[in-house]
Amino acid sequence: MAVRRVVYGGGDSLDPTQKLKISSHDQQPLDSVFASAPSKPFLVSGSRAMLSFGSVGGANRSGNLFFSSSDQEESGDEYLEEYFSQPGKKRRLSADQIQFLEKSFEAENKLEPERKIQLAKELGLPPRQIAIWFQNRRARWKTRQLETDYDTLHASYMSLKTNYDNLLKENEKLKAEVLRLKDNGLARDTDKALFQEMLKETIADMISQDEESKVSAVAFKNEDQSLESGDSSHVVEPDRSDLSQNGEDDLNEELLQPDYMFHKIEDAHRHHPASSFYCGFPAEDHIFSFWSY
DNA sequence: TTGTGTTTTATTGCCTCC
DNA sequence: GGAGGCAATAAAACACAA
Asked: Does the predicted TM-score (pTM) go above 0.90?
């Protein structure tokens, strides 16, 4: 087994008088050492988070092993020296010591030098060991804190995910609804387009009939005039002022305007009063109901 | 009793602060 | 530069099942 350096009693800035090489087999022999160690009361300073080891319920078994008498520190107890000089051993703290340290940690998880010394005195442990215990305790606290934070975040994530999934489902439902409504709308648009096409054809027929009759009338009139004046070179074009001169596209555009269609239909009806139907549709279904559609 | 996993104690090396 | 903190790690101590 490799020999490990075990130095206690003040950390890196160790007071040489407090340096000890320590090891132990287990807590029992250590306790017996504590029990046999001379106990000497020491002053407890007013440092914060300071507790009395006796108040935790355990007797101060340790006495002042590391801070007892100057004699002990100077001469060194041979028994203790032998006891603590066994390398490669780790000393477990007693339940009472741990309870005391836990209470102290709860009050303040940082360890000022003064408090370290005080705790060491109270527990009869080397200040270095107190420092190490706090160091490890902080590490454990941090690990547990991380676990707690993780659990909290995970719970939050799961809650958000549930909400998100619900929203997705709702979104899908709404999309389907929109699609369904759109399909209905398309069907109506198809009917509308068919109706418009039929309307255009009918109106175009009516207009052409109307134009033909106008042309005939003008021609007849012109014929009369030319007969009267003897001028046969004067050719009168049919009146297309109410029609676009830009061809079929503009006609189509105009045909879709309600006023124009109303005018033409009324006009057609005036010329063809026998028809009780507009454009082959019953009167009640005529263009106005279509445009309000 | 022994193998194995977990917890606790302690060291090392690096970093920051004064 | 020394003191102290922290992360990483080693190793002893402990718990427990087979």
From this structure: no
